[in-house]
Write a structure and sequence with these properties.
about 90 residues; mainly beta
């Protein structure tokens, strides 16, 4: 199988849907060039995609989805913001 790593820029919002190749593996989330980015291992030869639901919560904000997988925490010192990123279910 042929694997590569893709980067997806995230919008800082409560929930967003990202189309990824089927069987993609989310690796990490970090800040790059003052943007929140998600790195994902994908097989670029896969022709079909699936929707993946990404949730972003600020510290101290309520979390509404119970079945989530934690991806990581990113600190934006220049904004004084801390974002916690999870993958949840697509409704």
């Amino acid at each position: 199988m042929n694997w590569t790593i893709y980067k997806y820029e995230l919008i800082i919002t409560d929930e967003q849907i990202i189309d990824m190749p089927i069987d993609a593996t989310i690796l990490s989330v970090h800040k790059q060039n003052n943007k929140l980015c998600l790195w994902v291992k994908v097989n670029p030869d896969v022709k079909y995609t699936e929707e993946r639901c990404i949730h972003i919560y600020g510290t101290g904000n309520p979390i509404f989805i119970k079945k989530e997988i934690f991806i990581g925490t990113v600190v934006f010192e220049e904004h004084g913001a801390v974002w916690h990123v999870f993958e949840g279910k697509v409704d």
